[in-house]
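During the no-cost extension, the postdoctoral fellow (Dr. R.K.) reprocessed legacy sequence entries with the updated structure-token encoder. One reprocessed record is reproduced below for audit purposes.
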Amino acid sequence: MERLSATTGKGSAFRGLFWLAGALATLAAAAVGAVLAVFAAATVVVIAVMATALLTLAGMATRARRTARARKASAADPQIIEARQTGGHSWVAYGWNESPR
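Re-encoded structure tokens follow.
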């Protein structure tokens, strides 16, 4: 009596069914992997957008703090004149001829 096995090609009657179940499981795993990859990519994009917004707001806050501090200092002391950099090493001073000396 000859013994039948899956390796000889004359295997079980369920061989085709097992092959189909394996193919479906492979497709399901690939679909789940693709969904998880898209979810991970979307998460990275959301984190990047939030980080950009955070850095933008921090920069604006720092700029506003410097501007407010400069205006407050010049208004408090009448001996301080206002000067602004016009580019490179050039500065323009305002109010120097009106200051009480």
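The chain has a mean pLDDT of 82. The first strand starts at residue 82 and ends at 87. The remaining legacy entries will be reprocessed before the final report is submitted.
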